[in-house]
Records
---
Amino acid sequence: MEYEKPKLRLIEGGLCDKTQAEKRFVSAFVTDTRLMGQLAMGIHWKILDHPEAEDLYQYFSFDAEECGLDNYKSVWDGNVDAMDHIRQTMIGPLGGQDVIISEKEARALFTEFYLKNKENGPTFRAGLHEYKFLIDEPVFLSEEEDHNLLVKMCKPIETVEELVNYYIMRMCAKDFKAAALLTDGEGLFDLFEEYPLVTLLKNSIQENEEGYLCHSLLDKDGYYDIVVTTVIVENMKVTSASRGSKMGISYQEAALMLSQPEFLTVYRIIVGPEEFEDRPLEFNYNVMVTEYANGRMYMAFNKDNSHVNNRVFKLSGDVFGLYFITYNGEFIVASQSKESIIKMERDLLHQDIGSFLLPTGKFEFQEPVLLQFANSDIDFFEEFLELITGDE
Protein backbone atom coordinates (compact mmCIF):
# COMPACT_ATOMS: atom_id res chain seq x y z
CA MET A 1 0.00 0.00 0.00
CA GLU A 2 1.43 3.34 -1.04
CA TYR A 3 1.15 6.45 1.05
CA GLU A 4 1.03 9.98 -0.30
CA LYS A 5 3.99 12.14 0.56
CA PRO A 6 2.75 14.69 3.10
CA LYS A 7 2.66 18.28 1.95
CA LEU A 8 4.56 20.21 4.59
CA ARG A 9 4.92 23.96 4.86
CA LEU A 10 8.04 25.33 6.54
CA ILE A 11 7.27 27.99 9.13
CA GLU A 12 10.24 30.16 10.04
CA GLY A 13 10.82 30.45 13.75
CA GLY A 14 13.49 31.48 16.19
CA LEU A 15 14.36 34.79 17.71
CA CYS A 16 15.07 37.69 15.39
CA ASP A 17 18.29 39.63 15.81
CA LYS A 18 17.94 42.46 18.31
CA THR A 19 19.00 44.99 15.69
CA GLN A 20 15.91 44.00 13.70
CA ALA A 21 13.51 44.23 16.64
CA GLU A 22 10.77 46.85 16.69
CA LYS A 23 11.83 50.16 18.23
CA ARG A 24 9.98 52.99 19.92
CA PHE A 25 11.48 56.48 19.95
CA VAL A 26 12.27 57.84 23.42
CA SER A 27 14.37 60.99 22.93
CA ALA A 28 17.05 62.64 20.78
CA PHE A 29 19.50 65.51 20.96
CA VAL A 30 21.88 67.34 18.63
CA THR A 31 24.82 69.59 19.52
CA ASP A 32 24.56 73.31 18.75
CA THR A 33 27.86 73.27 16.83
CA ARG A 34 26.58 73.52 13.27
CA LEU A 35 28.47 76.80 12.69
CA MET A 36 31.75 74.95 13.37
CA GLY A 37 30.88 72.53 10.55
CA GLN A 38 30.79 69.46 12.81
CA LEU A 39 27.98 68.19 15.01
CA ALA A 40 26.85 65.09 16.87
CA MET A 41 23.42 63.54 17.38
CA GLY A 42 22.18 60.99 19.89
CA ILE A 43 18.97 58.93 19.72
CA HIS A 44 17.49 56.71 22.44
CA TRP A 45 15.21 53.88 21.31
CA LYS A 46 13.19 51.45 23.44
CA ILE A 47 13.48 47.89 22.10
CA LEU A 48 10.10 46.16 22.07
CA ASP A 49 9.46 42.44 22.70
CA HIS A 50 13.03 41.18 22.70
CA PRO A 51 14.54 39.36 25.68
CA GLU A 52 18.15 40.26 24.83
CA ALA A 53 17.83 44.05 24.78
CA GLU A 54 15.72 46.81 26.26
CA ASP A 55 17.35 50.01 25.00
CA LEU A 56 19.51 51.19 22.12
CA TYR A 57 21.48 54.44 22.28
CA GLN A 58 22.81 55.59 18.90
CA TYR A 59 25.42 58.33 18.45
CA PHE A 60 26.19 59.89 15.07
CA SER A 61 28.92 62.34 14.06
CA PHE A 62 28.18 64.59 11.08
CA ASP A 63 30.59 66.64 8.95
CA ALA A 64 28.61 69.43 7.32
CA GLU A 65 31.42 70.42 4.97
CA GLU A 66 32.47 67.28 3.11
CA CYS A 67 31.84 63.81 4.49
CA GLY A 68 28.30 63.91 5.86
CA LEU A 69 27.94 60.93 8.22
CA ASP A 70 31.50 60.27 9.38
CA ASN A 71 31.25 58.29 12.63
CA TYR A 72 28.82 56.08 14.53
CA LYS A 73 28.80 54.51 17.99
CA SER A 74 26.12 52.59 19.86
CA VAL A 75 25.42 51.42 23.39
CA TRP A 76 22.95 48.69 24.24
CA ASP A 77 21.01 48.83 27.50
CA GLY A 78 22.66 51.93 28.91
CA ASN A 79 26.19 50.88 29.81
CA VAL A 80 27.17 54.02 31.72
CA ASP A 81 30.93 53.69 31.21
CA ALA A 82 30.50 53.24 27.46
CA MET A 83 28.17 56.23 27.24
CA ASP A 84 30.56 58.40 29.27
CA HIS A 85 33.41 57.39 26.96
CA ILE A 86 31.42 58.42 23.89
CA ARG A 87 30.48 61.66 25.57
CA GLN A 88 34.12 62.43 26.40
CA THR A 89 35.72 61.41 23.10
CA MET A 90 33.09 61.94 20.39
CA ILE A 91 30.62 64.58 21.59
CA GLY A 92 32.47 66.67 24.16
CA PRO A 93 35.37 67.76 21.90
CA LEU A 94 32.86 69.62 19.72
CA GLY A 95 32.50 72.18 22.51
CA GLY A 96 28.73 72.55 22.29
CA GLN A 97 25.52 72.06 24.23
CA ASP A 98 22.85 69.40 23.71
CA VAL A 99 19.59 70.57 22.14
CA ILE A 100 16.51 68.36 22.34
CA ILE A 101 14.95 67.48 18.98
CA SER A 102 11.96 65.40 17.85
CA GLU A 103 11.98 61.99 16.21
CA LYS A 104 11.10 63.54 12.85
CA GLU A 105 13.95 66.03 13.15
CA ALA A 106 16.41 63.29 14.17
CA ARG A 107 15.41 61.04 11.28
CA ALA A 108 15.58 63.94 8.82
CA LEU A 109 19.00 64.98 10.09
CA PHE A 110 20.29 61.44 9.62
CA THR A 111 18.79 61.32 6.12
CA GLU A 112 20.45 64.62 5.15
CA PHE A 113 23.95 63.65 6.23
CA TYR A 114 23.72 60.02 5.14
CA LEU A 115 22.81 61.17 1.63
CA LYS A 116 25.65 63.73 1.74
CA ASN A 117 28.07 60.92 2.63
CA LYS A 118 26.66 58.70 -0.10
CA GLU A 119 26.98 61.51 -2.65
CA ASN A 120 30.56 62.44 -1.77
CA GLY A 121 31.81 58.93 -0.92
CA PRO A 122 33.36 56.70 0.08
CA THR A 123 30.21 55.68 1.93
CA PHE A 124 30.57 55.27 5.70
CA ARG A 125 29.33 51.78 6.62
CA ALA A 126 30.44 51.09 10.21
CA GLY A 127 27.48 49.79 12.24
CA LEU A 128 25.24 49.82 9.16
CA HIS A 129 23.13 46.87 10.41
CA GLU A 130 22.11 48.91 13.46
CA TYR A 131 20.85 52.02 11.65
CA LYS A 132 19.72 50.47 8.35
CA PHE A 133 16.11 51.06 9.40
CA LEU A 134 16.83 54.82 9.23
CA ILE A 135 18.17 54.41 5.69
CA ASP A 136 15.17 52.37 4.60
CA GLU A 137 12.73 55.02 5.81
CA PRO A 138 14.19 58.43 4.82
CA VAL A 139 12.53 61.52 6.25
CA PHE A 140 12.53 65.01 4.74
CA LEU A 141 11.43 68.29 6.31
CA SER A 142 9.54 71.19 4.87
CA GLU A 143 11.48 74.39 4.24
CA GLU A 144 10.12 75.92 7.46
CA GLU A 145 10.85 72.80 9.52
CA ASP A 146 14.36 72.60 8.11
CA HIS A 147 15.03 76.24 8.99
CA ASN A 148 13.76 75.75 12.54
CA LEU A 149 16.04 72.74 13.00
CA LEU A 150 19.02 74.66 11.62
CA VAL A 151 18.42 77.43 14.17
CA LYS A 152 18.43 74.84 16.97
CA MET A 153 21.82 73.54 15.80
CA CYS A 154 23.49 76.97 15.79
CA LYS A 155 24.44 78.66 19.04
CA PRO A 156 23.23 82.27 19.41
CA ILE A 157 25.74 84.83 18.18
CA GLU A 158 26.80 87.09 21.04
CA THR A 159 29.47 89.40 19.57
CA VAL A 160 30.58 90.90 16.27
CA GLU A 161 33.82 88.88 16.52
CA GLU A 162 31.84 85.64 16.64
CA LEU A 163 29.65 86.75 13.76
CA VAL A 164 32.54 87.71 11.46
CA ASN A 165 34.69 84.68 12.29
CA TYR A 166 31.82 82.23 11.76
CA TYR A 167 30.86 84.02 8.53
CA ILE A 168 34.38 83.73 7.09
CA MET A 169 34.59 80.12 8.30
CA ARG A 170 31.31 79.11 6.63
CA MET A 171 32.27 80.91 3.43
CA CYS A 172 35.59 79.05 3.29
CA ALA A 173 33.61 75.80 3.59
CA LYS A 174 31.06 76.97 0.98
CA ASP A 175 28.45 76.14 3.59
CA PHE A 176 25.87 78.66 2.43
CA LYS A 177 23.05 76.95 4.31
CA ALA A 178 24.55 77.81 7.70
CA ALA A 179 25.98 81.12 6.48
CA ALA A 180 22.46 82.25 5.59
CA LEU A 181 21.66 82.52 9.30
CA LEU A 182 24.47 85.04 9.71
CA THR A 183 23.40 87.40 6.92
CA ASP A 184 20.44 89.52 5.95
CA GLY A 185 20.41 87.80 2.55
CA GLU A 186 22.47 90.42 0.75
CA GLY A 187 25.69 89.15 2.29
CA LEU A 188 25.10 85.60 1.09
CA PHE A 189 27.29 84.90 -1.94
CA ASP A 190 30.44 82.94 -2.75
CA LEU A 191 33.06 85.15 -1.11
CA PHE A 192 35.90 82.82 -2.14
CA GLU A 193 34.57 81.74 -5.52
CA GLU A 194 37.98 81.04 -7.09
CA TYR A 195 38.78 78.46 -4.40
CA PRO A 196 37.53 74.96 -3.82
CA LEU A 197 36.54 74.16 -0.26
CA VAL A 198 39.35 75.53 1.95
CA THR A 199 40.14 75.55 5.68
CA LEU A 200 40.31 78.75 7.69
CA LEU A 201 43.41 78.43 9.88
CA LYS A 202 43.51 81.97 11.22
CA ASN A 203 41.43 85.12 10.93
CA SER A 204 42.44 88.56 12.20
CA ILE A 205 39.75 91.25 12.53
CA GLN A 206 40.36 94.99 12.60
CA GLU A 207 37.56 97.54 12.74
CA ASN A 208 37.83 100.57 10.44
CA GLU A 209 35.56 103.22 8.95
CA GLU A 210 34.36 100.82 6.25
CA GLY A 211 33.52 97.88 8.49
CA TYR A 212 35.59 94.94 9.68
CA LEU A 213 38.84 94.29 7.82
CA CYS A 214 39.83 90.60 7.86
CA HIS A 215 43.16 88.98 7.07
CA SER A 216 42.45 85.26 6.62
CA LEU A 217 45.00 82.45 6.39
CA LEU A 218 43.57 79.75 4.14
CA ASP A 219 44.79 76.19 3.69
CA LYS A 220 44.04 74.71 0.27
CA ASP A 221 45.46 71.17 0.41
CA GLY A 222 48.85 72.20 1.77
CA TYR A 223 49.07 75.50 -0.13
CA TYR A 224 48.54 78.70 1.81
CA ASP A 225 47.08 82.08 0.95
CA ILE A 226 46.42 85.25 2.93
CA VAL A 227 43.17 86.81 1.72
CA VAL A 228 41.90 90.27 2.69
CA THR A 229 38.15 90.93 2.96
CA THR A 230 35.94 93.66 4.36
CA VAL A 231 32.74 92.61 6.14
CA ILE A 232 29.89 95.04 6.84
CA VAL A 233 27.69 94.33 9.88
CA GLU A 234 24.37 95.91 10.82
CA ASN A 235 22.08 94.77 13.62
CA MET A 236 24.29 91.70 14.20
CA LYS A 237 23.88 90.48 10.62
CA VAL A 238 26.36 90.53 7.75
CA THR A 239 24.85 92.87 5.19
CA SER A 240 27.68 92.78 2.65
CA ALA A 241 31.27 91.72 2.11
CA SER A 242 33.94 92.55 -0.43
CA ARG A 243 37.19 90.96 -1.45
CA GLY A 244 40.56 92.62 -1.32
CA SER A 245 44.00 91.30 -2.18
CA LYS A 246 45.33 87.77 -1.80
CA MET A 247 48.88 86.53 -1.50
CA GLY A 248 50.36 83.04 -1.57
CA ILE A 249 52.81 82.18 1.20
CA SER A 250 55.09 79.24 1.97
CA TYR A 251 54.51 76.50 4.52
CA GLN A 252 57.24 78.05 6.69
CA GLU A 253 55.53 81.45 6.61
CA ALA A 254 52.18 79.88 7.45
CA ALA A 255 53.75 77.97 10.35
CA LEU A 256 55.25 81.20 11.64
CA MET A 257 51.84 82.90 11.53
CA LEU A 258 50.33 80.03 13.52
CA SER A 259 53.22 79.63 15.92
CA GLN A 260 52.57 79.93 19.63
CA PRO A 261 54.56 79.08 22.75
CA GLU A 262 54.41 75.60 24.20
CA PHE A 263 55.05 74.71 27.83
CA LEU A 264 56.03 71.07 28.27
CA THR A 265 56.73 68.75 31.22
CA VAL A 266 58.30 65.31 30.87
CA TYR A 267 57.80 62.50 33.40
CA ARG A 268 59.38 59.07 33.63
CA ILE A 269 56.90 56.27 34.41
CA ILE A 270 58.59 54.38 37.26
CA VAL A 271 56.48 51.20 37.12
CA GLY A 272 56.00 48.57 34.42
CA PRO A 273 53.41 48.98 31.65
CA GLU A 274 50.96 46.47 33.12
CA GLU A 275 50.90 48.07 36.56
CA PHE A 276 50.59 51.54 35.03
CA GLU A 277 47.74 50.56 32.74
CA ASP A 278 45.85 48.96 35.64
CA ARG A 279 45.37 52.43 37.12
CA PRO A 280 42.75 54.58 35.38
CA LEU A 281 43.86 57.75 33.60
CA GLU A 282 41.16 60.30 34.38
CA PHE A 283 40.64 63.47 32.38
CA ASN A 284 38.75 66.59 33.41
CA TYR A 285 38.46 67.44 29.72
CA ASN A 286 36.98 65.99 26.60
CA VAL A 287 39.70 64.19 24.67
CA MET A 288 40.50 62.78 21.26
CA VAL A 289 42.86 59.81 21.16
CA THR A 290 45.38 59.30 18.33
CA GLU A 291 47.89 56.48 17.95
CA TYR A 292 51.42 57.25 16.78
CA ALA A 293 54.39 54.98 16.08
CA ASN A 294 56.06 55.95 19.36
CA GLY A 295 53.06 56.48 21.64
CA ARG A 296 49.47 57.48 22.23
CA MET A 297 48.28 61.11 22.15
CA TYR A 298 45.34 62.45 24.17
CA MET A 299 44.27 65.86 22.87
CA ALA A 300 42.27 67.71 25.55
CA PHE A 301 39.71 70.27 24.39
CA ASN A 302 38.23 73.34 26.02
CA LYS A 303 34.64 72.95 27.17
CA ASP A 304 33.26 75.42 24.63
CA ASN A 305 34.13 77.26 21.41
CA SER A 306 34.87 80.63 23.03
CA HIS A 307 38.05 80.83 20.92
CA VAL A 308 35.82 81.98 18.05
CA ASN A 309 34.93 85.06 20.09
CA ASN A 310 38.29 86.79 19.54
CA ARG A 311 39.70 89.45 17.24
CA VAL A 312 42.35 86.87 16.31
CA PHE A 313 40.81 83.46 15.69
CA LYS A 314 42.94 80.33 15.35
CA LEU A 315 41.47 76.98 14.42
CA SER A 316 43.65 75.28 17.04
CA GLY A 317 42.35 77.57 19.78
CA ASP A 318 39.92 74.94 21.07
CA VAL A 319 42.78 72.72 22.33
CA PHE A 320 43.47 73.01 26.07
CA GLY A 321 46.52 70.75 26.15
CA LEU A 322 48.15 67.48 25.12
CA TYR A 323 49.02 64.28 26.96
CA PHE A 324 51.45 61.90 25.27
CA ILE A 325 52.34 58.48 26.69
CA THR A 326 55.27 56.91 24.87
CA TYR A 327 55.79 53.17 24.48
CA ASN A 328 59.17 53.63 26.16
CA GLY A 329 57.84 54.79 29.51
CA GLU A 330 57.62 58.58 29.19
CA PHE A 331 54.57 60.66 30.08
CA ILE A 332 54.56 64.16 28.53
CA VAL A 333 52.09 67.01 29.04
CA ALA A 334 52.05 70.21 27.00
CA SER A 335 49.95 73.36 26.73
CA GLN A 336 50.00 76.86 25.25
CA SER A 337 49.99 78.70 28.59
CA LYS A 338 51.67 78.48 31.97
CA GLU A 339 48.30 78.49 33.73
CA SER A 340 47.10 75.50 31.73
CA ILE A 341 50.26 73.41 32.17
CA ILE A 342 50.17 74.02 35.94
CA LYS A 343 46.55 72.85 36.05
CA MET A 344 47.39 69.74 34.03
CA GLU A 345 50.29 68.90 36.36
CA ARG A 346 48.11 69.31 39.44
CA ASP A 347 45.39 67.14 37.96
CA LEU A 348 47.93 64.34 37.43
CA LEU A 349 49.26 64.57 40.98
CA HIS A 350 45.74 64.12 42.39
CA GLN A 351 45.25 60.87 40.47
CA ASP A 352 46.40 57.38 41.43
CA ILE A 353 48.93 57.38 38.59
CA GLY A 354 50.55 60.52 40.02
CA SER A 355 52.64 58.37 42.38
CA PHE A 356 54.03 56.52 39.34
CA LEU A 357 55.36 59.66 37.61
CA LEU A 358 58.81 61.13 38.22
CA PRO A 359 59.35 64.60 36.64
CA THR A 360 62.55 64.73 34.59
CA GLY A 361 62.30 68.03 32.76
CA LYS A 362 60.30 71.24 32.21
CA PHE A 363 60.63 73.20 28.99
CA GLU A 364 59.35 76.33 27.29
CA PHE A 365 59.42 76.53 23.48
CA GLN A 366 58.59 79.37 21.12
CA GLU A 367 56.60 77.00 18.93
CA PRO A 368 54.84 73.62 19.39
CA VAL A 369 57.20 70.64 19.46
CA LEU A 370 55.23 67.77 21.01
CA LEU A 371 53.35 67.01 17.81
CA GLN A 372 56.66 67.07 15.96
CA PHE A 373 58.02 64.50 18.42
CA ALA A 374 54.92 62.32 18.01
CA ASN A 375 55.37 62.37 14.23
CA SER A 376 59.08 61.55 14.43
CA ASP A 377 60.71 58.12 14.51
CA ILE A 378 62.52 58.96 17.74
CA ASP A 379 61.74 56.93 20.86
CA PHE A 380 62.82 59.29 23.66
CA PHE A 381 62.05 62.99 24.01
CA GLU A 382 65.61 63.81 25.14
CA GLU A 383 66.98 62.38 21.88
CA PHE A 384 64.46 64.42 19.92
CA LEU A 385 65.42 67.54 21.89
CA GLU A 386 69.09 67.05 21.07
CA LEU A 387 68.17 66.75 17.38
CA ILE A 388 66.14 69.94 17.16
CA THR A 389 68.49 72.03 19.33
CA GLY A 390 71.74 70.66 17.94
CA ASP A 391 73.00 69.85 21.45
CA GLU A 392 75.20 66.81 21.90
---
Amino acid sequence: MNKIKQNTHLLASEKLIGSVVSIEKNKATVSLRITKEMSVDKFSLAHGSFTFGLADYAAMVAINEPTVVLGKAEVKFTKPVIVNDKLTAIAQISEGVKGSKIPVSVKVNNAKNELVFEGVFTCFVLEKHILEK
Protein backbone atom coordinates (compact mmCIF):
# COMPACT_ATOMS: atom_id res chain seq x y z
CA MET A 1 0.00 0.00 0.00
CA ASN A 2 1.31 3.45 -0.93
CA LYS A 3 1.79 5.84 1.95
CA ILE A 4 -0.38 8.96 1.59
CA LYS A 5 1.38 12.24 2.34
CA GLN A 6 -0.30 14.71 4.69
CA ASN A 7 -1.38 17.85 2.75
CA THR A 8 -3.30 19.83 5.35
CA HIS A 9 -2.85 21.29 8.83
CA LEU A 10 0.89 20.80 8.58
CA LEU A 11 1.68 23.09 11.53
CA ALA A 12 -0.87 21.53 13.91
CA SER A 13 0.42 21.03 17.46
CA GLU A 14 0.90 17.36 18.33
CA LYS A 15 0.77 18.33 22.01
CA LEU A 16 -2.64 20.06 21.72
CA ILE A 17 -4.57 18.22 18.99
CA GLY A 18 -2.66 15.04 18.30
CA SER A 19 -0.35 13.30 15.90
CA VAL A 20 -1.26 11.52 12.70
CA VAL A 21 -0.98 7.74 12.96
CA SER A 22 -2.12 6.92 9.42
CA ILE A 23 -3.73 8.40 6.34
CA GLU A 24 -5.62 6.24 3.87
CA LYS A 25 -8.03 7.11 1.08
CA ASN A 26 -11.04 8.74 2.81
CA LYS A 27 -9.76 7.79 6.28
CA ALA A 28 -7.38 9.11 8.93
CA THR A 29 -6.29 7.98 12.37
CA VAL A 30 -4.92 10.53 14.86
CA SER A 31 -3.92 10.05 18.51
CA LEU A 32 -3.53 12.35 21.51
CA ARG A 33 -2.19 11.81 25.03
CA ILE A 34 -4.15 13.82 27.61
CA THR A 35 -1.80 15.83 29.84
CA LYS A 36 -2.19 17.51 33.23
CA GLU A 37 -2.43 20.93 31.52
CA MET A 38 -5.63 19.75 29.82
CA SER A 39 -7.42 19.01 33.10
CA VAL A 40 -10.00 21.28 34.69
CA ASP A 41 -10.41 19.97 38.25
CA LYS A 42 -9.04 17.87 41.11
CA PHE A 43 -10.49 14.73 39.51
CA SER A 44 -8.21 15.12 36.45
CA LEU A 45 -11.17 15.58 34.09
CA ALA A 46 -9.95 16.83 30.71
CA HIS A 47 -11.64 19.78 29.03
CA GLY A 48 -13.78 18.57 26.12
CA SER A 49 -12.14 20.99 23.70
CA PHE A 50 -9.09 18.73 23.45
CA THR A 51 -11.18 15.70 22.47
CA PHE A 52 -13.11 17.88 20.01
CA GLY A 53 -9.85 19.28 18.59
CA LEU A 54 -8.49 15.78 18.07
CA ALA A 55 -11.66 14.70 16.26
CA ASP A 56 -11.68 17.86 14.12
CA TYR A 57 -8.03 17.35 13.18
CA ALA A 58 -8.75 13.73 12.18
CA ALA A 59 -11.63 14.90 9.97
CA MET A 60 -9.40 17.47 8.24
CA VAL A 61 -6.67 14.89 7.62
CA ALA A 62 -9.20 12.37 6.25
CA ILE A 63 -10.10 14.95 3.58
CA ASN A 64 -6.41 15.92 3.28
CA GLU A 65 -6.84 19.04 1.16
CA PRO A 66 -4.86 22.20 2.04
CA THR A 67 -7.97 24.42 1.92
CA VAL A 68 -10.33 22.27 4.04
CA VAL A 69 -12.31 24.05 6.78
CA LEU A 70 -14.95 23.00 9.30
CA GLY A 71 -18.45 24.33 8.73
CA LYS A 72 -20.55 22.44 11.26
CA ALA A 73 -20.23 19.70 13.83
CA GLU A 74 -22.86 17.48 15.41
CA VAL A 75 -21.15 15.66 18.26
CA LYS A 76 -21.77 13.62 21.37
CA PHE A 77 -19.44 13.13 24.34
CA THR A 78 -20.11 9.59 25.60
CA LYS A 79 -17.59 9.08 28.43
CA PRO A 80 -15.34 11.33 30.50
CA VAL A 81 -11.71 11.73 29.48
CA ILE A 82 -9.01 12.06 32.14
CA VAL A 83 -5.31 12.86 32.43
CA ASN A 84 -3.05 10.18 30.92
CA ASP A 85 -5.78 8.81 28.65
CA LYS A 86 -4.48 8.06 25.18
CA LEU A 87 -7.22 8.91 22.71
CA THR A 88 -7.44 7.64 19.15
CA ALA A 89 -9.69 9.31 16.60
CA ILE A 90 -10.74 7.54 13.43
CA ALA A 91 -12.28 9.77 10.77
CA GLN A 92 -14.05 8.24 7.79
CA ILE A 93 -15.58 9.76 4.67
CA SER A 94 -18.40 7.74 3.13
CA GLU A 95 -17.65 6.26 -0.27
CA GLY A 96 -19.07 8.17 -3.20
CA VAL A 97 -19.13 11.61 -1.54
CA LYS A 98 -18.31 14.27 -4.13
CA GLY A 99 -18.19 18.06 -4.20
CA SER A 100 -16.92 20.69 -1.80
CA LYS A 101 -19.27 19.83 1.13
CA ILE A 102 -18.01 16.67 2.80
CA PRO A 103 -19.51 14.96 5.86
CA VAL A 104 -16.92 13.09 7.92
CA SER A 105 -17.85 10.59 10.65
CA VAL A 106 -15.44 10.55 13.58
CA LYS A 107 -15.21 8.21 16.55
CA VAL A 108 -12.77 8.71 19.43
CA ASN A 109 -11.82 5.84 21.74
CA ASN A 110 -9.67 5.77 24.86
CA ALA A 111 -6.88 3.23 25.52
CA LYS A 112 -9.47 0.75 26.84
CA ASN A 113 -11.18 0.99 23.43
CA GLU A 114 -14.20 2.68 25.01
CA LEU A 115 -16.05 5.19 22.86
CA VAL A 116 -15.63 8.65 24.44
CA PHE A 117 -16.82 10.86 21.56
CA GLU A 118 -18.55 10.58 18.20
CA GLY A 119 -19.83 12.97 15.63
CA VAL A 120 -20.27 14.13 12.09
CA PHE A 121 -18.12 17.04 10.91
CA THR A 122 -19.38 18.91 7.86
CA CYS A 123 -16.29 20.17 6.10
CA PHE A 124 -15.78 22.32 3.04
CA VAL A 125 -12.93 22.31 0.54
CA LEU A 126 -12.51 25.89 -0.63
CA GLU A 127 -10.98 27.05 -3.90
CA LYS A 128 -8.34 29.01 -1.97
CA HIS A 129 -7.27 29.40 1.66
CA ILE A 130 -10.00 31.00 3.76
CA LEU A 131 -7.65 33.89 4.71
CA GLU A 132 -6.18 34.38 1.25
CA LYS A 133 -7.29 37.61 -0.41
